[in-house]
Amino acid sequence: MMRLRREDPRVVGSFRLHRRLGAGGMGVVYLGSDRRGQRVALKVIRPDLAEDQEFRSRFAREVSAARRIRGGCTARLVAADLEAERPWFATQYVPGPSLHDKVAEEGPLTAAQIAAIGAALSEGLVAVHEAGVVHRDLKPSNILLSPKGPRIIDFGIAWATGASTLTHVGTAVGSPGFLAPEQVRGAAVTPATDVFALGATLAYAATADSPFGHGSSEVMLYRVVHEEPHLVGVPDALAPLVQACLAKDPEERPSTLQLSMRLKEIAAREAQGLSDGRPPAQRARVERPAGRPAERADAYADQRTERRTGGTPTPHAPDQGHGHGGHGHGGQAGAGKGPHSGPHGRPSSSRNPGGPSSRPTAGRTGGRQAPRTTGAGRRPSRPDPRLMRQRLIVFVVVTLIVALGIAAAQKI
Question: How much is the pTM?
């Protein structure tokens, strides 16, 4: 927040202004309060734009959009005066930083945090689109992280579903790097337009950068239309979904409802600790053999077996006993999943570190029969009933908590 400047008004309508919250292309946003002490975020159009009929119309659309949207996904409209010398409107004040500021100050978020935020935002977009509105400028700075959940703000360029994205010939409205390809081309906007922006926003939360990098507006717009997004650093649990959101063809993107359901599942799974939610740059690196895909899978299975038992790998057929000459990072461990594999098929370094009690023998080890393994180095699938019950209980509890939290947020 910033102090009021000399040129700033002290009173607007029935609200007393206290601080500046920020300024944008349309005007200035202030922190104000009414006579009862209720705090509001009050936006006032700049004096030089107040006489421009186009800007007045754009401002009126923002107010109209805010009035039509129901639910707790946006800041509730409190009051407005579109006929004033300097039109203004006030919404419920949302405490908390923007997603942009949080990531800039604290770094990329975990997969669990991103999935939870994304689930709430996608559910919020369902309400926005049901009102016949497309936001058109969804980005990290237009998402506020309140204690009661994320809120979408700034519907200044919102438009009815199916409207064109051009305000002047050849000029796209929005923020480069978060615009959908159809916006750049000047085609009609649809709910899928906001899905693309949400995908770019989730990628930013995971990497602290736009999936289309940096550069001039022209360069960024070209990349959005013609180049694939850069998703290195997006957690494995989220990468396929983010990739789908950023499809060039709107028809290939998931709907907001599908997105909400999928992100809720990922958030619940990540809350149970079933996968590593840290960005890849922060994960412990696991060396994997290089070579052709089939050789890599078999060699990686051997490597996992060796680490699990502390001895030599289970022998395979003669033509599968190679592939350890080089190492690489990433890739798929197609034959490497088993009871002791970590998240996403990664070997767990905290289990069976090796030692006398874990070396394979022809008979018994420490009075117990040595575990049998399959050709890929895996034990036969024998799920532990008690563990399955514990996981089921945790899943149900987490799902209920998420559902109650969203229900409470929508009542605000």
Answer: 0.62
